[in-house]
């Protein structure tokens, strides 16, 4: 029995099986549902009729009325309406917030983006998140009682109950200001997840890890964070700390969890300070107006030798990080994620050149994510929709049957 069927009720498992079949499928016939749900014809029709009566499944024009030729009696056609309910996804970082409301077919209904003050108190951060969440739902036009699931990604480890452990500087408490309790009444199921865990969910659902059972989604912008998937399961740990990269502070040749953006800038500054770079070169000229990763990578792509040396240094740095992940989790792939991934391929090439000798195990393939800066939000949408399918929708059916 599927999770959905169990949630609908042990006396009517057929309802859950038909719901599972209908999810994301578009129009279907009773014959298709019978085969897909592995039910008898009479049981299938009874389940569909019940779901139609509760308003959860919609009956469409039959095949002949829809313009599709059908000899004999025309088949009845049905669908699970995408507008039956909605899912909400949040990406709550240290300095930014993204909120997306989607229908059950993943179509965005509203999106809100806002900057957040990194000096917020816990109470101020809660208030800001709730304010923008209210604005997004109001903009979507979805009544709150039709929200079937909510998932929020935070820049902190998250335990199974949605809480984060204390951080020496209070960072984790600010980025996850008790969201499990604050958002508990927003949907039948509310998930609070670490941002790298959601990046891993997004890569598995939409990205470079589709069909892969062992991979790491490595958020690599300002600081490293790793979402680890082993044997097809996203790993969490007792306090949600799997993938926290403070261990890099103790790795020779790495020394910190700084991400590729700061690392590229640091390596360029060190090169210029060493006087090995041309004093009148393009990299030195770039430094006069302030160094940052993207212009350095663009300079390297244009063939500048000093910027190319920076790229090689960044590749060596990344290779050592990947070697730690390779030895710890034995992944098939390591996917570099986040906004920086768009321009990072030269660094990945450099890392591939030096990675193999750093490992005894076969080296993982290093790939660039194609999901961009919104990867955490994409993973939150995937997670919320999965919860809507397995928990929110079956509860809606149960309410309409017994309410």
- Backbone CA Rg: 25 Å
Average pLDDT, all residues: 92
Biggest pleated-sheet summary = 5 strands, mixed
Task: Report the sheet-strand fraction.
Answer: 15-25%
Order of helices and strands: HHEHHEEEEEHEHHEHEEEHHHHEHEH
Q: Order of strands in the sheet with the most strands?
A: 6-5-4-7-8
Structural class: alpha/beta
How many H/I helical runs? 14
Record field, number of beta strands: 13
Uncertain residue ranges: 1-7
Distance between the termini: 24 Å
Specify the oligomeric state: single chain
Can you tell me the overall shape?
elongated
Helix content: 40-55%
Features:
single chain, 403 residues, alpha/beta, 5-stranded mixed beta sheet, 13 strands, elongated
Tell me what you see in this structure.
The chain is 42% helix and 16% strand. α2 packs across α3, α9 (260-273) packs across α12 and α11 (293-301) crosses α12. With 403 residues, it is of the alpha/beta class.
What's this model, at a glance?
With 403 residues, this protein is an alpha/beta fold. Helices cover 42% and strands 16% of the residues.
What is the topological layout?
Elements: H1 3-8, H2 13-22, E1 28-29, H3 30-37, H4 41-53, E2 58-60, E3 77-79, E4 86-92, E5 96-103, E6 108-115, H5 122-140, E7 147-154, H6 171-175, H7 179-182, E8 190-194, H8 195-206, E9 215-219, E10 225-230, E11 233-234, H9 260-273, H10 282-288, H11 293-301, H12 305-329, E12 333-337, H13 345-355, E13 365-368, H14 375-402
Parallel strand pairs: 4-7, 7-8, 9-12, 12-13
Antiparallel strand pairs: 1-3, 2-3, 4-5, 5-6, 9-10, 10-11
């Amino acid at each position: 029995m599927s999770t959905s069927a169990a949630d609908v009720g042990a006396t009517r498992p057929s309802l859950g099986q038909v719901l599972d079949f209908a999810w994301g499928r578009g129009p279907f016939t009773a014959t298709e549902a019978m085969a897909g749900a592995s039910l008898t014809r009479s049981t299938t029709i009874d389940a569909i009729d019940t779901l139609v009566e509760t308003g959860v499944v919609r009956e469409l024009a039959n095949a002949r009325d829809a313009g599709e030729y059908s000899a004999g009696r025309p088949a009845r056609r049905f669908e699970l309406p995408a507008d039956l309910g909605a899912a909400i996804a949040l990406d709550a970082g240290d300095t930014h917030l993204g909120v997306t409301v989607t229908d059950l077919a993943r179509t965005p209904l509203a999106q809100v983006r806002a900057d957040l003050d990194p000096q917020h108190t816990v109470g101020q951060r809660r208030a800001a998140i709730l304010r923008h969440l209210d604005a997004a739902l109001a903009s979507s036009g979805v009544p709150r009682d039709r929200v079937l699931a909510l998932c929020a990604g935070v820049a902190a480890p998250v335990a199974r109950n949605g809480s984060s452990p204390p951080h020496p500087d209070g960072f984790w408490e600010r980025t996850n200001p008790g969201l499990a309790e604050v958002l508990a009444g927003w949907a039948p199921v509310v998930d609070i997840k670490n941002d790298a865990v959601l990046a891993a969910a997004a890569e598995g659902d939409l990205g470079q890890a589709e069909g892969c059972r062992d991979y790491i989604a490595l958020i690599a912008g300002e600081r490293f964070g790793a979402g680890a998937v082993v044997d097809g399961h996203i790993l969490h740990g007792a306090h949600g700390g799997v993938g926290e990269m403070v261990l890099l502070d103790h790795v020779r040749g790495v020394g910190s969890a700084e991400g590729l953006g700061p690392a590229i800038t640091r390596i360029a500054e060190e090169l210029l300070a060493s006087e090995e770079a041309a004093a009148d070169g393009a990299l030195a000229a770039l430094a006069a107006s302030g160094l940052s990763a993207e212009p350095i990578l663009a300079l390297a792509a244009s063939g500048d030798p000093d910027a190319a040396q920076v790229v090689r240094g960044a590749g060596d740095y990344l290779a050592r990080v990947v070697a730690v992940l390779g030895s710890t989790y034995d992944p098939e792939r390591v996917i570099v994620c986040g906004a920086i991934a768009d321009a990072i391929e030269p660094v990945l090439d450099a890392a591939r050149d030096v990675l193999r000798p750093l490992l005894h195990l076969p080296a993982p393939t290093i790939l660039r994510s194609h999901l961009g800066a919104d990867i955490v939000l994409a993973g939150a949408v995937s997670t919320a929709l999965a919860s809507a399918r397995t928990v929110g929708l079956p509860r809606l059916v149960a309410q309409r049957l017994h309410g």
